[in-house]
Automatic annotation (TrEMBL):
CDD domains: TRX_family (cd02947). Keywords: Isomerase. InterPro entries: Thioredoxin-like_sf (IPR036249). It comes from the Bacteria. This is Thiol-disulfide isomerase/thioredoxin. The keyword Isomerase applies. GO terms for molecular function: isomerase activity. The keyword Isomerase applies. It comes from Tenacibaculum adriaticum.
Length: 195
């Protein structure tokens, strides 16, 4: 596992480089990943706008700041993501804001589809769900993982699936409404409980 993590970390990029990568690809009418479709491009375009808005509006709570400042040893926060993923667009800006609160945290991102071997070690209910945060100490030992969604959003989807049998356009719309109202607070609560 350590070698796999180190291999992925060699390809990892910063949050600002990730944002630039997505913008550059969009300028070429592309999305991240090997599959290039109009839908994935459109999702990426929408997500780029979401991330721009969240980068400006996300507020780190006092409780989160106090908790994250207690991290007194180097950590790498490695995130598996793709630019077309709606959950990633809603959650990664929050992770970035939290990481910026403490210089001991180095946020790094890798594209899921270029790192499937790593992704397959961190499946969610058997699926390659993203974003997936893997928190490592200085020795590249896993401290904890988080993702792909905050607890409340996960429950929202699970409850809908029990009632309706599927995840459809209606619940995806409801999920985006939930994200807009929650403003990254549940992500912060989840992470504080893991520190």
């Amino acid at each position: 596992m350590k070698k796999l993590l180190e291999k992925s970390l060699q390809k990892a990029i910063s949050y600002s480089d990730y944002r630039t990568l997505i913008s550059d690809l969009l300028a070429e009418n592309k999305s991240t990943g090997p599959n290039q479709t109009e839908d994935l491009y459109n999702y990426s375009l929408l997500n780029d706008r979401r991330m721009k808005r969240l980068d400006k509006t996300i507020k780190v709570t006092d409780i989160t700041k106090q908790s994250v400042l207690k991290i007194n040893e180097a950590q790498t926060w490695l995130v598996l993501t793709e630019g077309w993923c709606g959950d990633a667009a809603q959650n990664i800006p929050v992770l970035n804001k939290i990481a910026e609160e403490n210089s001991n945290i180095d946020l790094k991102l890798v594209l899921r589809d270029e790192n499937l071997e790593l992704m397959d070690e961190f499946l969610t209910n058997g699926g390659r769900s993203i974003p997936k945060l893997i928190v490592l100490n200085a020795n590249k030992e896993i401290l904890f993982t988080w993702g792909p969604r905050p607890t409340e959003a996960t429950n929202l989807i699970a409850d809908y699936k029990v009632k309706n049998g599927v995840v459809d356009a209606k619940i995806k719309e409801d999920l985006q409404v939930w994200y807009n109202k929650n403003k990254g607070e549940n992500v912060q609560e989840d992470l504080v409980s893991l520190f």
